[in-house]
Design a protein that fits this description.
The structure holds two protein chains of two kinds. Chain A contains three helices and no strands. By secondary structure, chain A is mostly helical. Chain A has a single domain, classed as Non-ribosomal Peptide Synthetase Peptidyl Carrier Protein, Chain A (Orthogonal Bundle), CATH 1.10.1200.10. In chain A, helix 1 crosses helix 2 and helix 1 packs across helix 3. The radius of gyration of chain A is 12 Å and the shape is globular. The model of chain A has no long low-confidence stretch (mean pLDDT about 90). The longest helix of chain B is centred in the C-terminal third of the chain and has 20 residues. The mean pLDDT of chain B is about 95. Chain B has a seven-stranded mixed beta sheet, sandwiched between helices. Chain B is globular. The chains are: A mainly alpha, B alpha/beta. At the A-B interface, helix 2 of A face strand 6 and helix 6 of B.
Chain lengths: ~80, ~400
């Protein structure tokens, strides 16, 4: 069962190619306002996490996610 | 900070379009000349983006029925189906739709949006799960958000991905609603319904199929993709619209589940809105009959669809993955797509411009929809309009 840190590490790995030069990625980075992810890119991030961990991520959690930390914490809370 | 801040991206795009003198969203149809020709934004054009698949909007019998209903029943029902808004014709249309689909139950809604959104919002609730195709229509997304159910997407038209989702749910599949469309509105591609129905049978749950774009188009009787795939028995709920093949406005849900008779009283988009106007119901009933009496309309529609698809493909455009009455041309660059849309209008063809996030990817689309009422000559003129496009430059042509 993956834990918070594994979700965080994988999210960082997936986000790296999306991150513009000069932007420092950390767990407090905001996905949309800071990293500039479009709604399609957010869905791509979700799909990659789903495929990697063999989980389904409900859309319902998205409104509560602003930062990388929020995402990892929400995934950690899911009942896998 | 203000309430308007979140609209800034829309305000910016609108400003950009105004800057180049193009407004593709809300182009004004000033005069209709026929089901397939009109004056739009001052240009005489062939209508190649109307979803008027069977071309029935000016059918004399439909118009006459609408006029008679106006004269005999008035301009509107002024009430909900639950109150004063159920007229004999609403009940008759429900019976005729149920007979057409060979189902026991039918509900008629005021719009297609109310039908799809309302069913998606009502069938599953808190504690249930909805698994829907990622490219589902906005009305379905709106519905599932309202439902309170746990919502999971699967990759568009990917039955293997759907299976993964169902497998992960385990015993919860008993409380799961699977939502797909028969034919997808943006690219005209069809769902692999035989595979999806087999998965539903294996894992459990219920299956809802939105056949908005496939009614009158596919299957022996024109009932849609499920009929063409031979899996109608496995589809629990079929929803759709009168605003495309039937040339009016309104929506429906048909099912063999007896529970639908009671579920009707739980659907807020059915209860808290006025019922369809009598003239709309009257023309829809005639159109539904004509659609069954004239299978040649379907033949002509597909003949035209293949002619346009092959013609645009031969010109080297990146077209939809499969030929259908929806033929979408992908233009990667958004500004170029806007310019091409404007050029097409000036060259005599009205198509739909679709930009992200309404398009399924980061690309933009020039979306054409074909009608049985198009002549071959009109289809060829649409192709000619595309052939002359300046796809190299992004400045809008005016």
């Amino acid at each position: 069962m993956p834990d918070y840190n594994e979700f965080l590490d994988r999210t960082f790995k997936i986000l790296k190619p999306f991150t513009k030069q000069g932007v420092i990625l950390n767990k407090d980075s905001e996905l949309v306002t800071e990293l500039g992810l479009t709604s399609l890119q957010v869905m791509e991030l979700i799909e990659q996490l789903e495929d990697h961990f063999d989980i389904s991520i409900p859309l319902n959690i998205l409104p509560d996610i602003r930062t990388v930390h929020d995402l990892a914490a929400q995934l950690d809370k899911l009942d896998h | 900070m203000s309430l308007f801040d979140k609209f800034q991206p829309l305000i910016d795009i609108r400003g950009e379009l105004e800057g180049v003198g193009v407004m593709p969203f809300g182009a004004v149809t000033e005069k209709l000349l026929s089901p397939t020709e009109a004056i739009v934004n001052g240009q005489r054009v062939i209508l190649a983006g109307t979803n008027n698949y069977l071309g029935l909007t000016f059918e004399p019998e439909c118009i006459q029925a609408g006029q008679q209903a106006l004269a005999e029943q008035g301009t509107g029902t002024t009430g909900s189906r639950m109150a004063n808004g159920t007229f004999a014709a609403h009940v008759a249309l429900e019976q005729e739709l149920a007979a057409f689909f060979a189902k026991q139950q039918c509900i008629v809604f005021s719009t297609g949006y109310a039908a799809t959104m309302g069913m998606a919002a009502t069938l599953a609730g808190p504690g249930d799960v909805i698994v829907l195709d990622a490219d589902s229509h906005a009305s379905l997304y709106d519905g599932v958000r309202l439902s309170g159910a746990e919502v999971v997407r699967f990759k568009h038209n990917d039955a293997a991905d759907l299976e993964k989702r169902l497998r992960r749910l385990g015993a919860r599949t008993a409380n799961t609603l699977i939502i797909v469309e028969g034919m997808y509105s943006m690219l005209g591609d069809q769902a692999p319904l035989a595979d999806i129905a087999a998965l539903k049978k294996h894992y459990g749950g219920l299956l809802l199929v939105d056949e908005a774009h496939s009614l009158g188009m596919l299957g022996e009787h024109g009932r849609g993709v499920a009929e063409a795939a031979g899996v109608e028995e496995d589809v629990d709920f079929t929803v759709g619209t009168f605003s495309k093949s039937l040339g009016a406005i309104g929506g429906y849900c048909v099912s063999n589940h007896a529970e639908l008779a009671a579920i009707r009283f739980a659907i807020r988009s059915y209860i808290f809105t006025a019922s369809p106007s009598p003239s709309v119901i009257a023309s829809t009933r005639v159109a539904l009959r004509l659609m069954q009496e004239r299978p040649e309309l379907r033949t002509r529609l597909w003949d035209n669809a293949r002619r346009l698809y092959d013609g645009l493909q031969a010109l080297g455009f990146k077209v939809s993955p499969q030929a259908s009455p929806v033929v979408a041309v992908t233009i990667e660059d958004r500004d170029r797509a806007i310019a091409c849309w404007s050029q097409l209008l000036h060259r005599g063809a009205y198509v739909n411009l679709v930009m992200p996030p309404a398009s399924p990817s980061t690309d933009s689309l020039l979306r054409c929809s074909v009608s049985a009422a198009h002549s071959h000559e009109q289809i060829d003129r649409i192709i000619e309009a595309f052939a002359g496009l300046d796809t190299e430059h992004t400045a809008a042509a005016n």
